[in-house]
Amino acid sequence: MQSSFPREHYVKTQQNKRCKITGLTRGPDQGQDQNEASEHDFAFGTGADVYFRHCVTQINLRNDKWEVSKETGPPELFDIVVLTMPVPQILQLQGDVANLISKCQRQQLESVSYSSRYALGLFYETGTKIDVPWAGQYITSNPCIRFISIDNRKRNIESSEIGPSLVVHTTVPFGVTHLEHSTEDVQELIFQNLEGILPGLPRPVATKCQKWRHSQVSRESAGEDIIFFIRID
């Protein structure tokens, strides 16, 4: 189903000060494998209520409303549902929403594939110095690590009151090979490789290892672009 977003409804939504916008995610692991829309993407109007970490399982039509069911909690009703998760997760959804996709469109969507990788965030105490002359660096000589960023420096938010943070992206081959490994084991492997690239790096006070199952599109749909706006006429 290809359609355009109705301008009159879009304007009405923007003017609704109590418009409830929910950041719905679809992924089996709430903490490690999800694709979550940002608050800035969903908050159309001032005062919008934004909710994250709701794993969607079904979308059904109920009395001219879209009923969204989640893994936990009661279902909720919406006038419009916009799906922004990766294609494989859309195709896993149950309910009436599956009937909106024609056989031809489903075949096109099933042809889409994604690369996978991990991201590791390292957070340091205030006053910690990371002695490198750059804010970000691509790594071409390591089988595990592809990119390193001194994130606060890259974002130009260095402060005497906030400790620095470092972000590491793995290579796609490493991500694919270790996709189903535990994040603890993967984090240790990234640490070992990082030590070889930046020896003597200070020990962080906190870390966050994130599995990025659907990182970037590696093969696009074979047909035309398909945009779904689920709405009630």
Entry summary:
The protein has 233 residues and is α+β, with helices and mostly antiparallel strands.
List keywords for this structure.
disordered N terminus, 233 residues, 7 helices, 11 strands, FAD/NAD(P)-binding domain, 5-stranded antiparallel sheet, alpha+beta, Polyamine Oxidase, Chain A, domain 2
Q: What's the structural domain tally?
A: 2
Count of helical segments?
7
Q: How many distinct beta strands?
A: 11
| Percentage of residues in strands | 25-35%
Largest sheet: 5 strands, antiparallel
> Which descriptor suits the 3D outline?
elongated
Q: Measure the end-to-end span.
A: 14 Å
Helix share, percent: 10-25%
Secondary-structure element order, as H and E? HEHEEEHHEEEEHEHHEE
Question: Kindly state the mean pLDDT as a whole number?
Answer: 78
Strands side by side in the biggest sheet: 7-8-9-6-10
Radius of gyration: 21 Å
CATH class (first level) name of the largest domain? Alpha Beta
CATH topology of the largest domain: Polyamine Oxidase, Chain A, domain 2
Uncertain runs? 1-46, 229-233
Indicate the structural class: alpha+beta
Which CATH-level-2 architecture of the largest domain?
Alpha-Beta Complex
Describe the overall structure.
This protein is an alpha+beta fold. The protein folds into two domains: 20-111, 3-Layer(bba) Sandwich (FAD/NAD(P)-binding domain); 115-217, Polyamine Oxidase, Chain A, domain 2. 22% of the residues lie in helices and 27% in strands. It is built from seven helices and eleven strands. The protein has helices at 7-15, 39-42, 87-91, 103-110, 151-154, 172-177, 183-197; strands at residues 20-25, 49-62, 65-70, 76-78, 113-114, 117-123, 136-138, 145-150, 165-170, 206-212, 217-219. The strands form three sheets. Strands 7-8-9-6-10 form a five-stranded antiparallel β-sheet. Strands 1-2-3-4 form a four-stranded mixed β-sheet, with no helix packed on it. The two termini are 14 Å apart. Residues 1-11 have a biased composition (Basic and acidic residues). One of its GO terms (cellular component) is extracellular region.
